[in-house]
Amino acid sequence: MDTVNNTPVEEMGKVLPRCLVCGEVPAGGIRDGLKLKMGFICTECEKKIVHLEVGSSAYDDIIEKIKAVLMI
Ligand SMILES: [Zn+2]
């Protein structure tokens, strides 16, 4: 977490992405995460997913959320 949060927000006036896993809007906007076709995952959750154990309930939970968005 070495992001310096003093840069002007370019996304001002635009719709900021909301992470579909945690529901948070990342400070860095659209560039602070992973843009999917129908959604967005913030860097924090991206890291979380990478370290989750496949088959664990937390993993399943996140996968379900992502699937729900991708299936729309
Ligand atoms: Zn997130």
Characterise this structure.
It is a single chain. The protein has helices at residues 43-51, 57-70; strands at 33-35, 40-42. It is 32% helix and 8% strand. The mean pLDDT is 81. The protein is globular, with a radius of gyration of 13 Å. The chain is α+β, with helices and mostly antiparallel strands and 72 residues long. It contains two helices and two strands, in the order E-E-H-H. A hairpin with a 4-residue loop joins strand 1 and strand 2 (40-42). The longest helix has 14 residues, at 57-70. Bound molecules: zinc ion. Zinc ion binds at residues 19, 21-22, 24, 41-42, 44-45. The site of zinc ion has 8 residues, from strand 2 and helix 1.
What is the secondary structure topology, with strand pairs?
Blueprint: E1 33-35, E2 40-42, H1 43-51, H2 57-70
Antiparallel strand pairs: 1-2
This protein binds zinc ion.
Zinc ion is lined by residues 19, 21-22, 24, 41-42, 44-45.
Summarize the structure.
The protein is α+β, with helices and mostly antiparallel strands and 72 residues long.
The low-confidence runs, each spanning 5 or more residues with pLDDT under 50, are: none
The H-and-E topology, N to C, reads as EEHH
Strand residue percentage: 5-15%
Rg for CA atoms: 13 Å
Number of helices: 2
Mean pLDDT: 81
- Structural class of the helices, strands and pairings? alpha+beta
Note the main sheet.
2 strands, antiparallel
Spell out the key features of this protein.
2 helices; binds zinc ion; globular; alpha+beta; 72 residues
